[in-house]
Amino acid sequence: MTGAVGFGVFSVDGGPPRVGFRVGHGILDLAASGLGSVFATPNLNSFFALGRSAWEDVLGRIAELVRAGADVVPLEHAKAHLPFEVADYVDFYSSLEHATNLGRLFRPDAEPLLPNWRHLPVAYHGRAGTVVVSGASVLRPCGQAKSLDDPVPRFGPSRKLDFELELGFVVGVGSRRGSSVAAAAFRDHVFGVVLVNDWSARDIQAWEYQPLGPFLGKSFTTSISAWVTPLALLEDRLVPGPPQEPEPLSYLRADGDWALDVELEVELSGTVVSRTNARGLYWTMPQQLAHATVNGASLATGDLFASGTISGPSSGSEGSLIELTWNGAHPIRIGDGSTRTFLEDGDEVVLRGRAGEVSLGEVRGTVLPART
User: CA of 353: how far to CAs of 27, 190, 219, 350, 359, in Å?
Assistant: First the structure.
């Protein structure tokens, strides 16, 4: 479907939020188009829960309406809302290049990858309650930090606020606690994908993360697209992933091609600072889902699983400022002539993605000063 972006929730002139499908710069009002009362709701969760057969049927009916020239709401007349209620949020660490870069930064005299990295998709649990829709501002977080020169930790606004370019997938159909979900069942449980910016306070994270991992340095805000692109529109963008060595354990083996060929870019205050592609991710989406449930953890409608920062192998393909500036050692220049090591108040970050004729909804956020 040329120009398709995906499903979302919108309102017009202060009216009630409802579900629409965005094509280009217009939104098809699904309930008003006769597709059912499940779309006259303020989120996509009820539709997600209907399952794969319903998803495919609705997508076919939308394609027919679009081809027939159905009326759409101009995008500029609509307000976008968070598209689904986020039940749970998990952030992975799936990019070999990103993990290697951070390993070299923080363990320069040791092997960049920790021993478990090539054996399982490393992840942490984030906070579903601080997932926000594209366009919501981002308050600079406060917390404890301690540099090598500080005798004791300080408290205050983060001095190393960063973006993270990520791709997330959204669960439609849940599972029972105690039952694992096989990689082969991915299409039956997962509705679609969104772009994700998992904002990161690097200085707060560096002081707090040992031994239990990220906490306040990550939990303050995660931004997602207002539009969820269904997997069914991306089937022709599935390509072979990078080789995995050693061969994963049996529960992590996924037949078929599962790397997603999506071109990605990051714009910082009007300047594109990074371009990369999601197809380079070492751990695929079905592997992430299988690993997250192999212990019997259940899935719920609205669960969000993010890839972790997506970085490529070449300069300018890194998905975060900590990599682009090598932890501040090499500032980057933006269009107005100023330089950045980390984000400054007033900076706007925009993530964009494109998969052939399908655009993913952008993720936009502006940094506001901390409330101290």
Answer: 19, 19, 24, 10, 6
Alpha-helix residue ranges (DSSP H) falling in 171-223: 186-189, 202-208, 216-219
What distance in Å separates the CA atoms of residue 262 and residue 128, rounded to the nearest whole number? 25
List all residues 6 or more positions away from 369 whose beta carbon is below 8 Å from its beta carbon. Answer: 139, 140, 157, 345
pTM of this prediction? 0.97
Q: What are phi and psi of 235, to 5 degrees?
A: -55, -35
Contact in structure between 4 and 233 (CB atoms under 8 Å): yes
SS3 39: helix
Residue 98 a catalytic site member: yes
Which parts of the chain register pLDDT below 50? none
Could you tell me which of 169, 176, 196, 164 has the C-alpha nearest to residue 283? 169
Q: pLDDT tens for residues 113-147?
A: 999 999 999 999 999 999 999 999 999 999 999 98
**Is residue 370 a contact partner of residue 142, using CB atoms and an 8 Å limit?**
yes
Q: At 360, give phi and psi (nearest 5°).
A: -85, 150
**Exactly one of 25, 77, 81, 98 is catalytic; which is it?**
98
What is the enclosing helix (H) or strand (E) of 350? strand 348-355
